[in-house]
Specification:
heterodimer, A: Transcription Regulator spoIIAA, 5-stranded mixed sheet, 9% strand, B: alpha+beta, 35% helix, phosphoprotein (chain A)
């Protein structure tokens, strides 16, 4: 078997690829720096792109050495996951779809493959074929790792936002001494309605509220489950000595509730938040007097 | 005229999140077919009730939305199917106030009043299919007195 002059050791194809990547990391990184993926992510300087490329090449070489070219969980990838995620995220922000990002990652293979073939010049065709196969499997795994990382980032973001939504979407607003209001927005599923009930009841205690207004202007659909949640909240508030008023029932919702057969029964309802506030103020004995139209207050 | 894209769909119903998709799709499809705001709201509410039934009682399933036409009138047909335990006593399940799941018991009977056509087929042990259809600008069906 002809011995390659710089390669020296002839292990498995994967190890051969690992050795090649280590020897040629500078050249590979230089070529990658000209590819669209690196050019668009590292816009400040080419050196930065080359450095990033070298880090990835080193990781690939490490994975190849351990003969786990098809394993996305290989230890070698750990170090570059963050960088791959950053690059993927930058491309997504630029408006590329996942498929396009994946295609850009795939475009990294040909330059390396050309280098490898040139490097293996003089070896048996069978050996060359085995090595290029190992390299494409390795690059495929790199692509998988990048997409996996991007996906898990998105998942983490979604989870965070869902939690934030639970917290943020239920502020309790003090409208007047003894009157609090909760503007409900979006879907009232079980988790959200539980949070609404808890925050409202706490506010009733903290603010010594006699009236609580639940405004459903921002709730797109009121079905029987939403109505049930509302009635439970109202009943719990009543046990604590606060009267609830449900406001913001739009005409379409009112008609739908009638057809559905929902009867909010003993619950006070008003068309708008202003009406509800007026009702509560009246019940508290507070009167609002409009200023005289001729500007009497200014004299 | 209308393109069926944006109306025709097969949506899985497996979690609370899927109910959100169902509602959004029905609202968009109904708006696209020219339903007024009140009819859109009725359809979305009926879809929400039926999809929740599919999820809670049927253990998950599927909603199919399709565009139907009768003469010059467009309609939206929604089919909810599951492979759950089925409904043993349909008449009772359709009556207001009867519940097996701790709800208000308005879902099935109530959603029947929100749509024009309502067909429910249930085989105990092998699943339930509810098919509802509503037509653009047609007077609502007369209320049935029990």
């Amino acid at each position: 078997m002809p011995e390659h002059d710089t390669g020296g050791t002839l292990g498995t194809p994967a190890q051969e690829v690992g050795g090649f990547l280590r020897r040629r990391s500078e050249q590979v990184a230089q070529r990658w720096a000209d590819e669209p993926l690196f050019r668009t992510v590292f816009t400040v300087s080419r050196d930065e792109a080359v450095e990033a490329g070298k880090a990835i090449v080193d990781a690939l070489a490490h994975v190849a050495d351990t003969q786990r070219v098809e394993d996305p969980d290989a230890a070698g990838f750990t170090g570059v996951r963050e960088q791959l995620a950053r690059m993927g995220a930058a491309r997504s922000r630029a408006g590329l779809s996942a498929t396009q990002v994946s295609a850009e990652l795939a475009a990294l293979l040909p330059p390396v493959e050309n280098l490898l073939v040139a490097d293996l010049d003089g070896q048996e065709p069978e050996r060359v074929r085995e090595c290029t196969t190992a390299l494409s499997v390795l690059m495929g795994t790199l692509r998988l790792v990048a997409m996996q990382t991007a996906l898990s980032e998105v998942q983490a973001l979604t989870d965070r936002q869902r939690l934030q939504l639970l917290e943020v979407a239920t502020p309790v607003i003090k409208l007047w001494d003894g009157i609090v209001a909760v503007p409900l927005i979006g879907t009232l599923d079980s988790a959200r309605s539980q949070v609404v009930m808890e925050t409202l009841l706490e506010a009733v205690v903290d603010q010594h509220a006699r009236f609580a207004i639940l405004d459903i202007t921002g709730v797109p659909t009121v079905d029987s489950l939403v109505a049930q949640h509302l009635m439970k909240t109202v009943a719990a508030a009543r046990l604590m000595g606060a009267e609830c008023v449900v406001s913001g029932i739009r005409p379409a919702i009112a008609q739908t509730m009638v057809h559905l057969g929902l009867d909010l029964g003993t619950v006070k309802t008003r068309a708008s938040l202003a009406d509800a506030l007026g009702y509560c103020l009246h019940e508290l004995g507070a009167n609002i007097v409009n200023a005289a139209p001729d500007g009497a207050g200014r004299r | 005229m209308h393109t069926d894209a944006g109306v025709e769909a097969r949506l899985p119903i497996r979690s609370d999140m899927d109910l959100v998709w169902v509602r959004q799709h029905v609202r968009q499809a109904a708006a696209r077919l020219g339903f007024g705001l009140v009819d859109q709201t009725k359809l979305v509410t009926a879809a929400s009730e039926l999809a929740r039934n599919t999820l809670v009682h049927g253990g998950g399933g599927l909603m199919e939305a399709s565009h139907v036409a009768d003469g010059g009138t467009d309609g939206l047909r929604l089919t909810f199917s599951d492979t759950g335990p089925g409904i043993p006593d349909l008449d009772r399940a359709l009556s207001d106030g009867y519940t097996s799941g701790g709800g208000l018991g308005m879902g099935l009977g109530g959603s029947r009043r929100l749509v024009h056509d309502f067909v429910v087929e249930s085989v105990p042990g092998s699943g339930t299919t509810v098919r509802v259809t509503s037509w653009v600008s047609r007077p609502p069906r007369p209320r049935e007195e029990a």
